[in-house]
C-alpha cells in the first residue's frame, strides 16, 4: 500500500494496493470515500506502479509505472472515462524508478524524478500535459528523492543527497 492522496474536495482518497500473489494483477489503484466506505479498484495492472496522486482539478490520477525491464512511464488516469495515457520519457533521459510525482496547481504540469544515461543521480523534471514535453528543473551533482509541493506551487520540498567523490593519485614505489 501507499500513502493516500486526497481529492481536491477532501471527500475521497486514492492509494495503491500491491497484489503480488495474483498472476495477472500485481498493483491496483483504489478510490475510497474519506471514511473508507465505497472502496473500489479503478485500475489494475501486472506492472509495478508508484504512489498515485490526485490532480488539483479532481479529474485525473497520476503515477509512475514500469512498462518494461528497467523502463518507466508517467501514467495519467482519467477517472470519469477510465482512460489511461502513457507518457514516455524523452530519449535522452529515464524516469527514475517508482518515485512519487507532484501536480502543479494548474493541473497541466507534473514534477517527477529522472536520470540521465550513465548516472544514478535522480534529478527533478517537469512534464507538460497533454503534450508530454519534458523540462529539467534540476541538473546537478546531487541526487533527489521525495517531492512535496505547496498548494500554490511556489514552494517545493525534496530530500537532497550530496554525493561526494574524490580522486586519489598514488605514485608507485621504486
Characterization of this structure:
With 174 residues, the chain is mainly β. The protein contains no helices and 15 strands. Strands 9, 10, 11, 12 and 13 form a 5-stranded antiparallel sheet that branches. A 4-stranded antiparallel sheet has the order 1-2-3-4, with no helix packed on it. Strand 10 and strand 11 form a beta hairpin. It starts with a strand and ends in a 13-residue tail after the last strand. The model has no long low-confidence stretch (mean pLDDT 90).
Termini, distance in Å? 61 Å
The secondary-structure class comes to: mainly beta
What portion of residues is helical? under 10%
Structure annotation, total helices: 0
Compressed to H and E, one letter per element, the order equals EEEEEEEEEEEEEEE
Largest sheet: 5 strands, antiparallel
**Beta content:** over 45%
Mean pLDDT: 90
**What shape does the CA trace take?**
globular
Strand segment tally: 15
Spans where pLDDT lies below 50 across 5 or more residues: none
The radius of gyration computed from the alpha-carbon positions, rounded to a whole number of angstroms, is 18 Å
